Amino acid sequence: MKHMKTVLILEHTEEVFDKLTCDVCGTESRWDENWSEKEHEKVITTIAMEEEESLPSGGSSRLVQYHICPDCFKNHLSRWFESHRGGKATETTSVW
Fold first, then answer.
1. Which residues touch 73 (CB under 8 Å, ≥6 apart)?
2. How far is Cα 70 from Cα 46, in angstroms, rounded to an integer?
3. Where on the tree of life does the source sit, at the highest rank (predicted)?
4. Quick one: pLDDT at residue 30?
5. What is the pLDDT of residues 68-87, one digit of tens each?
């Protein structure tokens, strides 16, 4: 869950990023949307659905996200997907 806070900026208030917590267990990320414990690593786990409509007169989009820590992703969500109709993740690796 992305937590926002309202702050006063040059005589007006604005909503800015405060912290990120797991929507399953409540664990707080150390950084922002990066769940890594180490500064030089990146671990992002977000379940999202984006709906978009484009018309000649303009468009709109809606983004729905669940933020989930890597532990809950591996131990709960992945297992749930695999136990339902044999769902398998698409995995891509890179080396540089």
1. 45
2. 10
3. Bacteria
4. 87
5. 999 999 999 999 989 988 88
Structure-derived torsion over alpha carbons of residues 52, 64, 93, 37, reported in degrees to the nearest 10: 150
* 89 contacts: CB under 8 Å, gap ≥ 6: 78, 81
Judge whether residue 37 has pLDDT over 90.
no
pLDDT one-digit tens code per residue, 43-62:
999 899 999 999 999 999 99
Compute the mean pLDDT over every residue in the chain, rounded to the nearest whole number. 90
Burial of 78 (0-12, 13-18, 19+ CB in 10 A): middle
- Residues 49-60 as b/e (b if ≥16 CB within 10 A, e otherwise) read eeeeeeeeeeee
Q: Where are the alpha helices (DSSP H) in 36-77?
A: 70-72
